[in-house]
Amino acid sequence: MLNHLMVERVLLELKDPSDAKCALGFFHWSTKRRNIEHGIRCYCIAIHILVGARLLNDACALLESLLNKTKESSSRVMVADTLLGCYLVTDSHPIVFDLLIQAYAKLRLTDVAFEVCLYVEKHGFSISLVSFNTLLHVAQKSDQFGLIWDVYEHMIQERTYPNLATLRIMINALCKDGQLQKIVDALDRIMGKWNSSPSVIVNSSLIFRVLEQGKMEESMVVVLLKRLLQKNLIPHSVAYSLIIHARIRLGSLDSGWEMYEEMERRGFQANSFIYTSFIGAYCREGRIEQANVLMQAMEERGLKPYGETFDHLIIGYANLEQLEGCLSACDKMLSIGLIPSCLSFNTMVEKLCAKGHVEQANSRLTLLLDKGFSPSDITYTHLIEGYAKKDEIQEVLKLYYEMEYRSMSPGLSVFTSIIQCLCHCGKLEDADKYLWIMKGQPLTPSVTIYKTLIAGYRQKGYSIRALHLQNEMDSLVIHK
């Protein structure tokens, strides 16, 4: 009676490349004629034999069949582990693991493919650039941008360097993710316009991503950059700028200055990107005067500040509650044709409104809207809260309607401000209307809103409505 053990023995007897076709024929015959349902090990032995004989199409067909059979398995590396286990007894070839990873990728099991890649490498096998490109291509088609960069970073760490096909895939990924222009702008500030090759764009993107995630120590970032330099994948000016930026981002300002001085000694010129990195660091530390000194030095050297440079100053001034400096930086920015980021403008608006200067904040918004600025719901929330504190209900409602016009969804704080303001102005029916609007949205009225309305109705002598709201509030608290 034919069983799995006997099938394995026969296959191993036929492991010589000259017998590979016979091995494949026996594998299929035992399935059809003897109703043997092959296990993973039988599949893997047959695959190894076919790979050893360079019958790669047949090997790929068996791999695909095996992966479809085992894709519900709880162990993502079970097939890889079994292939490793019978690798030596079949005199196979390392390309079998490339075929495995490519097969996973083609089945769109990209996460599993990368996990298997790491597992196989841990056991001493190298993965080819073709396999990495296959994995990157499928991940890019599936919009798996995080995975794409994890794979690419791993490639560089393992000294598997990109070719033109790799770079094309990575550029496409940057385009689809909406990140290409951001990287090109950063490189323009380092190297000047039109000097960025696909290699420089992709590898600079990798470093920026690593820094933004904060998952790598400075020494590892420098090692990554040195590898890219050794292969001429980025120019020295970009490498120096990114190392300085890395040291600053990782909190080592003094170390950043040391690298900057070394950069100048070697004949590389400073650039707007480096100055902006230092200005941002000083602003984050609350050292706004030093940031301003650098801004002046930057302009004296003929280097143009850009949007992010001013954004750092606006946020720096705002955090120190130096509102005149905030407004001055914003006005200077506008005078040279730049507009602040939503984050920096919202930070400024928040501080202005908190200090009672909501009119100045609103007038700046009007000016910016004419220049193409796109406010967020946070912008309107701060302004509504600012006007509500002054009980200027017409301005509050005007901003609320503007939010609706822009298809923004007012949050809890907006409704709280509107209802409190209406209650303070004695317009309880209008306040009730906004409570009703709120209930029609996926927002739960807060206890603060209920208490404001209850107090307003009691003050007016409407005890029945106040009691009804009290009961609603109590049920809300119990439910929570």
Automatic annotation (TrEMBL):
InterPro entries to which the protein is assigned, alphabetical: PPR_rpt, PROP1-like_PPR_dom, TPR-like_helical_dom_sf
PROSITE patterns (alphabetical): PPR
Repeat found in the keyword field: yes
Intervals holding PPR repeats: 236-270, 271-305, 341-375, 376-410, 411-445
Protein keywords: Repeat
UniProt record similarity statement: Belongs to the PPR family. P subfamily.
Name of protein: Pentatricopeptide repeat-containing protein At1g66345, mitochondrial isoform X2
Organism expressing this protein natively: Arachis duranensis (Wild peanut)
